Amino acid sequence: MSIPTFGAGTFRLQGQVVIDSVRNALELGYRAIDTAQIYGNEAEVGQAIAESGVPRSELFITTKIWVDNYADDKLVPSLQESLDKLRLDAVDLTLIHWPALGKGVSVEAAVTTLARARQQGLTHLIGVSNFNIADTGLAIGAVGKDAIATNQIELSPYLQNRTLVAWLREQRIPVTSYMTLAYGKVLSDPVIMEIASGHQATPAQVALAWALQLGYAVIPSSTRRENLASNLKAQAMRLSADDMARIASLERNGREVSPAGLAPQWD
């Protein structure tokens, strides 16, 4: 099993809003849906999936273990609770959401317990999220790099994370990009807008195509059906070498997500 390169995220979407977003995404052809325990929307995501009529075999569902559930006696029960909310027997991918060393559970212990959950059939793949090089190295030491299906990290034209990405490529660990549009900030960037105009595309399509062309999986979210449909078209775009170079020049360490007490020392 491999990770789909294009999916729908659900971060910050709640209640009927997330039900509608997931329903629209599935109707439009999305088959990968990303959620997390801390998002507080697993039950609504599960409802939308159940009501969609899409066969389970066609779907790829990801959730993430929250930091309060890393302990040996909490992780598996919390994942079972997530499965109940999602109305699934197993998810396709489960991630350790943050390294969160201050929570008293080591990276090695958390990842090892997650690997046990996989052995129990609760998740098909496991991985990490928001891990730097050092923490990913600890995870590799615990379960082996072949067991880590992805590191889901913040990546956008404004935060290109080149050091971490280069290292993950050396380890052959796939990268999933979240916040690829930088909370929408890149959509009004003059360079992105000019490239979009040249391709008769939207700025969002350009940013997503940039990430896809670099080999990342992407999980953009939207509450609007037309934007979900438009984003899908990024898969068919091909940016030129000049386009990619111009976007590369936009790097500004523009990190949007770095919660105190959870985030590692970034590379």
Automatic annotation (TrEMBL):
GO MF annotation, one: oxidoreductase activity
Pfam families named among the record's database cross-references: Aldo_ket_red (PF00248)
Keyword NADP: yes
Keywords: NADP, Oxidoreductase
UniProt KW Heme keyword: no
InterPro entries the record matches: AKR, Aldo/ket_reductase_CS, NAD(P)_OxRdtase_dom_sf, NADP_OxRdtase_dom
Annotated signal sequence range: none
Every NADP-dependent oxidoreductase domain range: 12-251
EC number(s) given by UniProt: 1.1.1.346
Family indicated by similarity: Belongs to the aldo/keto reductase family.
NCBIfam families to which the protein is assigned, alphabetical: PRK11172.1
Protein's UniProt name: 2,5-didehydrogluconate reductase DkgB
Organism: Massilia mucilaginosa
Lineage of the organism: Bacteria, Pseudomonadati, Pseudomonadota, Betaproteobacteria, Burkholderiales
Gene name of the encoded protein: dkgB
